[in-house]
Amino acid sequence: MAFGLVKAFRAQTSKTLGKLAFAGAIGASLVAGDVVAQQKQPSPGSAKAVFGSVKLPTQGAAQPIGFYAKGCMTGAEALPTDGPTWQAMRLSRNRRWGNPAMIGLLEKFSQDARSQIGWPGILVGDIAQPRGGPMFNGHASHQIGLDADVWLMPMPDHRMTSEERENLPFTTMLQKDKFLTVDPRVWTQQRAQLLMLAASYPQVERIFVNPAIKKKMCDTWTGDRTNLGKLRPEYGHDSHFHIRIKCPPGAKGCTAQAPVAAGDGCDKSLAWWFTKEPWAAPKPPKPGAPPPKPPREVMVSDLPKACAAVLDAPSVASMQAATYGGPSAASALTAAPAAAPAVDTGSALPHVGPVPNDKPAVQ
Ligand SMILES: [Zn+2]
Fold first, then answer.
1. How many whole angstroms from 123 Cα to the centroid of ligand 1?
2. The domain that contains 110 carries what CATH number?
3. How many CB atoms lie within 10 A of CB 189?
């Protein structure tokens, strides 16, 4: 089912992109935003609607259940809205929840980024919903608390208000008037260092970046390239990168993803993104053929069986009680009520996917 969903994402992406790619200059974030805007309102009872309306995580031990793009989780913890080296963004989405292994990594990464490369602090985007599961908008994965988005802009020198966190625009790293090209006026070596630092942790299995950013890294990274293969080219991901960690040790219900292929990934698997194929419009239907059925929505019953029980499980007492570092770490900056299930038409994360398997299949 996850693959069906992913295919639907891909088909929709291709359709949109097909109209635009090569017909003129495109900005990848603009295109991806367009795709997000086209997503339909989820039906009541769909997994997106049900998991998207849950406000608090379950009590008990943290367990990822299922796969990154088809699952849920128990015992999530919230990233505090503020730490010495991070600020959480888009608080109204209520997606600061993750497996403690991911929240702990974000803390460590943000500290290392400051001490090792002088990055002032990280801006953290979506992690997951309180009990994981599919989201109303923006992502195919982020369902089991082991995925997190980090902005490619540094934390500002002041503590942002909730409004600033909602409204701070995304900054693309791409040149708007060129196809898949990093903008040299925005891109910096420090950003390259940030990506390689994120890739350096053994528990990090993949980092999704725009193909143009991957190419830039391939062309310019002169340091140790051992972890460069963890950087995976993917649609969108031009204003943020996406960190994916492995199933934590002992997480029996977590479905692992195949490890990335050996090598730095600066090969034909990257070159493919610079061909027409990923951006091509789907083939037109044969004359007289019935119109293709719209993809079926993912229902709770399509997810691993345990996810229905996760929805019924008792909640923690409060967001503060389940905040990483304990209630004292919970910020006074309270989130606005969780966003209503609405289609986001512009402020949505310019993000499609990532798909669970990297393309092309042969790598
Ligand atoms: Zn992401």
1. 13
2. 3.30.1380.10
3. 10
pLDDT tens track for 62-75: 999 999 999 999 99
Distance (angstroms) between ligand 1 centre and the Cα of 286 equals 36
pLDDT tier for residue 267 given thresholds of 50, 70 and 90: very high
Q: Structurally, how many domains does the chain consist of?
A: 1
Note down the domain range covering 193.
2-281
Strands (DSSP E) contained in the chain are 63-67, 70-74, 77-78, 82-83, 86-88, 97-98, 122-124, 147-151, 204-209, 231-233, 240-245
Cα–Cα distance list, 40 to 32, 37, 170, 334, 341 (Å) = 15, 8, 23, 29, 11
* Band of residue 60 on the pLDDT scale cut at 50, 70, 90: very high
Neighbours of ion ligand 1 (CB under 5 A): 149, 242
On whether residue 277 sits in a domain, the answer given is yes
Tell me the CA–centroid distance for residue 294 and ligand 1, in Å: 24
State the distance from the centre of ligand 1 to the C-alpha of 354, rounded, in angstroms. 7
3-class state of residue 240 by DSSP: strand
Give the Å distance between the CA of 94 and the centre of ligand 1.
Answer: 15
| Cα 243 to ligand 1 centroid, rounded to whole Å | 7
Distance 179 CA to ligand 1 centre (A): 22
Residue 293, pLDDT > 70, answer: yes
What are the residue ranges of helices labelled H in 227-317? 268-271, 306-312
- Ligand 1 centre and the CA of 281: distance in Å? 24
**Where does the chain have alpha helices with state H?**
2-20, 28-38, 47-52, 100-117, 162-167, 189-199, 211-220, 268-271, 306-312
Residue 356 lies in a domain: no
Domain contains 306: no
